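Lab notebook page, bench 4
Experiment: in silico fold of construct C2
Operator: M.H.
Input chain length: 58 residues
Purpose: comparison with the prior construct
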Amino acid sequence: MLPSTGMKLTPEQQQEALALLQSDVPFREVAGRFGVAHETIRRLALRAGVELAPRDKS
């Protein structure tokens, strides 16, 4: 198993991130706000059952 890297989100930050995702803020933008990899936010959303908005392809 690879060691974990990067900043972990506190429970409060996780709740805030989930609220942003539920407000249709793109998960990459949420990741940028918290200084974590977008994959961290994607996994958080999957664990919480939050559906991610599709990427804008325009």
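Observations: Residues 11-22 form the longest helix (12 residues). Residues 21 and 27 are 6 Å apart (CA to CA).
Next step: discuss at group meeting.
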